[in-house]
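User: For my dataset I need records formatted as: sequence, then structure tokens, nothing else. Please produce one.
Assistant:
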Amino acid sequence: MGPVLIEAFRYNRWANLHLLDVCAKLTDEQLRLTSPGTFGTIAATLTHMLAAEQRYLWRFGGYEPELKEQDGFPGVASLREHAAGSGDRFIAEAARLNDGNAGEAKLREGETRAPLAMIFVQALHHGNDHRTHICTILGHHGIPYGDMDVWAYGEAVGAYQAPPEA
């Protein structure tokens, strides 16, 4: 689980920030849009997604979540700061992890434990799931959001190379 997991969380951070940059251009009314089959409004989904990232990090120990859903939508700029911070922490946690140090993490307050790998996989899945919800809402309402798949990430970070000249 080394470099691949690190790259997966680099992508997760990039995709979160891309989507937040799109949402920064929305009006308050647009941030309250929703569509059938999604989590809720754009604002509520962003807040939930990023608060959950901080809760996943809490499970590793030594980190207390700052973003709480019950406090409501703090604004896109604030969420962007949270996304950058939690994204950086996930990348650092992934870098610390190696096959000999897989370990366990807190699942809930108290004694419940889970394999650390489960927390990492859940965090990636959760982010993708809710970004898709927000893109569904945006698309349903005719609001462009650009590409944020892994191919777009690769292009954005310069991962592709031109073929060698013959």
